[in-house]
Amino acid sequence: MNETTRRKFLLSSGLAALSAAAPLAAEPEKKKDLFVHHVYFYLKNPDSAQDEAKLREGLDKLAKVPTIQLAHIGSPAPTNRSVIEKGYSVSWLCFFKNLIEEEIYQTHPIHLKFIEEYSHLWEKVVVYDSIGPKR
Q1: Residue-wise pLDDT tens digits, 47-67
Q2: Which of 22, 59, 68, 69 has its CA 20 to 30 A from that of 96?
Q3: What are the protein's UniProt keywords (predicted)?
Q4: Are residues 51 and 18 located together in one domain of the fold?
Q5: How many CA atoms lie within 13 A of 133 on its CB side?
Q6: CA distance 131 to 63
């Protein structure tokens, strides 16, 4: 095999190998990356223990959505630094295997019922969604 032909062969076989692997490399990130969904609820009546308890009741029900891997209901911690946001009443943190699983959660009947039954309690909701680092 002469040098020119050998180079062409190596180049073409390398391109063939890359094209065979391309579907794996091009797999949508929405199927691969851990998805974190963090919601901060600002209650209309932030001093109402009853409203907070009611919201927590709803979040306990919401935690039953099957695509949720782990859920945590929280309150502002007793920490005091200028960068800490403490104006919210309740936080809702949940983890999903990927974006697709989170999208299922968004349209799941339990989630839709939660919004319908409990949205009257809050004046504002702030959501932070994140995925793992780019590889």
Answers
A1: 999 999 999 999 999 999 999
A2: 22
A3: Signal
A4: no
A5: 1
A6: 20
Structural domain for 93, as ranges = 32-131
> Based on C-alpha coordinates, what's the Rg of the chain?
23
- In sequence order, what are the residues at sequence separation of 6 or more whose Cβ sits closer than 8 angstroms to the Cβ of residue 11? none
Q: What are 109's two structure tokens?
A: 């009947």
Q: Report residue 78 as tokens.
A: 């007793």
- The per-residue pLDDT for 132 is 82
Which residues are bridge partners to 124 per DSSP?
A: 42
How many separate domains does the chain show? 2
- Global confidence as pTM: 0.75
Q: Residue 4: which pLDDT band, with cuts at 50, 70 and 90? A: low
Residue type, 96: F
The count of residues in the chain is 135
Q: From start to end of the chain, where are the E strands?
A: 35-43, 70-74, 90-96, 122-131
pLDDT tens, residue by residue, 74-112: 999 999 999 999 999 999 999 999 999 999 999 999 999
| Residue 75 C-alpha from the chain's centroid | 19
